[in-house]
Amino acid sequence: MTLPLPPRRSPSPLPAFALALLAAFAPAPALVAAEGPESFDALDRSYGGQVRPLMARFCLGCHSTKEKAGDLDLEAFAKLDEVRKAPGTWRKVAEQLASGEMPPKDEDQPAAAERDALKGWVARYLKAEAYANAGDPGPVVLRRLNNAQYAYTLVDLTGHDYRPTRDLPADSAAGEGFTNTGDALVMSPALLGKYLDAAKRVAAHAVLLPDGFRFANGDTRRDWTEEILGSIRAIYARHADAEGKVPLGKYLAAAFEARTRDAGARRELAARRGLNPRYLESLSRILDGGPPSPILDPIRARWKSAGPADLPPLIAEIEGWRNALTRFQTVGHMKPWMVPVDPVVDREPIRLKLPESPKGREVVVHLAAGGAGPGRPGLVVWENLRLARPGRPEIALRDVRAIAQGMAARHAKVVDSVVPCLAAAAEALAMKGGVDRDALSKKHKVDPAILGAWLDTLGIGTGRSPGLDLFTGRLTKAGGQDAAAGWGSNETPLVVANSSDETLHIPGELKGRGVVVHPSPTLRAGAAWTCPKAGDYRVEARVQHAHPACGNGTTWRLELRRGAVQISLAEGATAGPGVVPAGPFGPFPMGAGDLIALTIGPRDGNHACDLTAVDLVVKADGDGGRAWDMAREVSGDALAANPHADASGNPGVWRFFREPDGEPSGLSIPASSTLARWLDAPGEAGKEYLATKLRRLLADGPAGASLADAALYRKLTTPGGPMIPATPSGRPVLDESPWGLPPKAFGPGAVADGIAPADMAVRGPHSIAVRIPAELAAGAELVGSVVLRPVEGGAEVAQARASIGAPPAADGLRPDAPALASGPAARERLKRAFDEFRAWFPAAVCYAKIVPVDEVVTLTLFHREDEPLRRLMLDPDEAARLDRLWTELHFVSRDALTQVEAFTHLMEYATQDGDPRLFEPYRKPIHEHAEAFRKELLAAEPRHLEALVAFAPLAYRRPLAGREARELRELYGRLRSEELPHEEAFALTLARVLASPAFLYRLEASPPGVKSAPATDWEMASRLSYFLTSSAPDAELREAAAAGKLRDPDELAAQARRLLKSPKARRLAEEFACQWVHIYKFDAIDEKSERHFPAFKGLKGAMYEEAILFFADLFQSDAPVRALYDADFTFLNQALAEHYGIPGVAGPGWRRVDGVRKYGRGGLLGLSATLAKQAGASRTSPILRGNWVTEVLLGERVPKPPKNVPLLPEDEASGGGLSVRQLVERHSRDVKCSGCHAKMDPYGFSLEAYDAIGRRREKDAAGLPIDARARLADGTEFDGLDGLRNLLLGSRRPDVERQFVKKLLGYALGRGLMLTDEPLLDDIRRRLDAEGGKISTAVDAIVRSRAFREVRGASPAMADVH
């Protein structure tokens, strides 16, 4: 039957009986919710009898089949059967009735009782419909992973975030407002292509290992190698420093503190101090006692009695032994890094360097010996001790006393005769012919021997020409330049001249008509002018580094040489490109054959880039001022001869030579010394004054003298030199002499027989002081040896030391000297003691660099040396991990193959600059190792493929079907058959897995028939995991699925509780909670005015992080739902705390801060992210915030605003004296707007104390006071955020809890809620009331529900209802 459409008319009152009937017909909403569903027969009767007539009067005028306003045809619902076919339509009718929007305001309105009757019937019908199909799981859709799920799944599969969604389009929200809603997750060919590209990028990070593969952060072999190196270094760094050494001082300090504690206390102490507990325990044990050891026993004895002040020297002694028992060497050529050193000898060489310039008149040397073990030292024999000095005869220690006595007598004679001897020397210098030494000695009444020594020192009348090692090899076209020629060979040293006027580069700069020399590491290169005729001459020189772009410069000397005498004129060093001038010097007399020599040497032994330009100019003081210029006279025809004639044809004037670098071999008179000045002095008076001064120097010693005179003193008084010969006096040696030792201390008979005449035997421990005159000691070295002879009752081991100053007294052996063993057995016992010490106190525990850089061309690409670390510190698991990392390093880096290339380079390098035969023995093992590695690579390929097949179930989140495994193997095989390398074929097959539907979709199969059926265990694992962690099931969840446990609701609930407490609950916070409250991806928004809020850009990331941490904490701590609003804590760093005005938070780290409600924070209402998101770009918006509270938190629908609504000012300062609140209130007076605004604006007004980026304020930007008081349409009043919170958790608590549960359920199911979900919502609300309102209760109820655990049948009995 079709009801007639009533004419539109004004409302008229109903008869009283009709109103009473309708009132009785419409039960209270609470009763509807509390009671069970009404039967459909009863609903059918009331629909035809009461509801349909009301619809005809108030609804069908617009919503008829003909009019169909809003695309709604209510006329078609003639009977309840038609109504039941479209329950979704009636849910919309219920919303319209609840909001009061229908009928429109300008149409006839039903009386209140009539409206309640309609609302009541619709509510009862919908409830009946909901319960009729309660638990319907909903439609089975092709559910693609959304971007977050895709990214998180790959993170959990690979362990890395490769940002795989960076090229994917953003997901759309649907259903209950979430991006995981299946209906919105569409796929297109273009999107599938992007997924394939992303899969290839991810697959490029797969690292093939010996037994499988894993994912790395990088995507190149170098990246993978560096990552493995980083992992190995991380293990090393946990226990050792950058040099691979352990902080022994820290360990010993901790062991000292824990000496009286048990093992548990020591472990606790180690953890507190960041030390390795195993090593600390081992050290404590070995220091407390152990087998006898000549090394450890003295340390143990001191350890047991040590106080805090004794610890540093004890640590120093142990460190000393560590350094003494191991040496380090380069490893680049396949050698070990740490080499054991066993400082035990049968005979110990003695080499004690004595001071170059002793302070005082003597040097005291101590000869000391001590024993180790229970006995005392046996017979210590000091063998052939003597003083050695380069170029001087050696002096036996037994002769020191006699020689010192003779030197003293000679020294006195020399001092007394200085002035007359130098007067005689001056006279000799003036002689043109030969010198009659006897006549001069008689004339000046001096000792002929002493005068002869002075004349020899000064090179007077010797008649000897200085000998030079001249270059003989000829150089042509040096550096490929035709004009560059000289003397030497292709190796340094050499001399080259430029015959052209152009500057040449050979390399290094050779100026036109210039001369350059180049020294070697050990030889100086020199140029000398030979005096052709006796006379007085002046000299000057210039030196310039010719290759300043590299190298460290050179040293130079300018000397006058007479026979063996070298008189230094000047010396120095080059640095940079500047010219270094020397002179002019003179005039000084020279005899025919005397030399002016300019030599160039390497600086610090480094001769690289040492090409040096030199020039030497000599002028005669008489003879018309004749001049000689080396560069001008030699450069034109350098190869004419060596020696080279001068410009006048005098033969052999210019000489080019080489000589050892170091101190001059003859007597060198220091420049500016008194004797050098005496030589230069022109007059007799000047020479006499300087002679007197020289006498005082020799009489008083060098104390207080200039450096040049101090050096001169040493040269003149050096024993064995020309002035003071190192010979005994010839008189009896005085017993009371303080020098040396008595002669009777040496040789046989004094202590033992069989002792050589120059040896000294001493029994037992001793320390003998030997005083040596400063003149004998200066620059000398005490050399000899010492042995330990076995004697009955004596110790088998001893140590002997020769030292300047008394040696430290100590019991037992010390690390600063080798140990003497009396025989092979003692030697072996001592070596075992050294081994034991090294085992417990290794010099280093690992080669932490791993990559050697100590050779120009290295053969060892990665050097492993960590046995002490593994043995002393690592537990079995960590040691196994370290071993695996090293295996992976060699496999991934392929260093066995790279080593072949390195060997080839090394051989090329050695062929050029060395002897390649030294490396030839490495050839065979290197190539054999490479070949073995190639076989290993081939053998690993099947394992890689099987690992990939085993990986697929993890990606697919279920076991593979047999055909799927077969298809993967076949795909790989086809790729290899197309000649793709193994690695490429593997990567493409892996990409296929990561782009397959089984990975990209959460596929579920509908059971046949009408009824729903439980999801499989694997489907349940995915449902639960993607609900709570937005990712694939973890290992525990997979294990439960494999065991068939997830169909048990209790097991499912237990797994849900576990996941809620895991760190991955952060994902639920972001993906669910942040989407729910509309702040998802808040850190990416860019809609705030930088002019108004410049701080926002730097704070938005912190605002978002606070929200995520807050929600995650609520989920993990099993908080009640009300804590979403009334929590009195938040998470802050310093920047956000300052934004909030909360003190006491310093630094960038995040921490939980309690008691924040007194600062206007706490709960989601106080989060700056929610406050800022629901605000404008430059001002607050009570409308946005009010609408957010109404729709998002309370779940009430607000109609869309009408078109052409006037806009409010853009910022608060543009309000014309009105606040934002006042502007909104004025705007809301419009009758079209007032209804909705009255419903939502009060909520927004209560949050006006927070600006557009969530800061608290008392005035707005225009300086107007803030009014946060609010009044709802029903008269309810509240004030500010606290008032709003109290309202929501008071009278509106059922609504906010139901809204939270509704959103959580919609997110869990990944779809919009249906009418059939209403009973479940009711059930969850009842459980919340009964069980304390905890969030976990809602989660538990959801995962136990049929909607979550079941899959709808392939032929459902009802239409989808959303």
TrEMBL record:
<dbReference type="InterPro" id="IPR013043">
    <property type="entry name" value="DUF1595"/>
</dbReference>
<dbReference type="InterPro" id="IPR011429">
    <property type="entry name" value="Cyt_c_Planctomycete-type"/>
</dbReference>
<feature type="domain" description="Cytochrome C Planctomycete-type">
    <location>
        <begin position="59"/>
        <end position="106"/>
    </location>
</feature>
<dbReference type="InterPro" id="IPR011478">
    <property type="entry name" value="DUF1585"/>
</dbReference>
<dbReference type="Pfam" id="PF07627">
    <property type="entry name" value="PSCyt3"/>
</dbReference>
<feature type="domain" description="DUF1592">
    <location>
        <begin position="1016"/>
        <end position="1142"/>
    </location>
</feature>
<feature type="domain" description="DUF1595">
    <location>
        <begin position="946"/>
        <end position="1004"/>
    </location>
</feature>
<feature type="domain" description="DUF1588">
    <location>
        <begin position="1161"/>
        <end position="1260"/>
    </location>
</feature>
<dbReference type="InterPro" id="IPR013036">
    <property type="entry name" value="DUF1587"/>
</dbReference>
<dbReference type="InterPro" id="IPR013042">
    <property type="entry name" value="DUF1592"/>
</dbReference>
<feature type="domain" description="DUF1587">
    <location>
        <begin position="143"/>
        <end position="207"/>
    </location>
</feature>
<feature type="domain" description="DUF1585">
    <location>
        <begin position="1274"/>
        <end position="1348"/>
    </location>
</feature>
<dbReference type="Pfam" id="PF07637">
    <property type="entry name" value="PSD5"/>
</dbReference>
<dbReference type="Pfam" id="PF07631">
    <property type="entry name" value="PSD4"/>
</dbReference>
<dbReference type="Pfam" id="PF07635">
    <property type="entry name" value="PSCyt1"/>
</dbReference>
<feature type="signal peptide">
    <location>
        <begin position="1"/>
        <end position="33"/>
    </location>
</feature>
<dbReference type="Pfam" id="PF07626">
    <property type="entry name" value="PSD3"/>
</dbReference>
<dbReference type="InterPro" id="IPR013039">
    <property type="entry name" value="DUF1588"/>
</dbReference>
<keyword id="KW-0732">Signal</keyword>
<protein>
    <recommendedName>
        <fullName>Planctomycete cytochrome C</fullName>
    </recommendedName>
</protein>
<dbReference type="Pfam" id="PF07624">
    <property type="entry name" value="PSD2"/>
</dbReference>
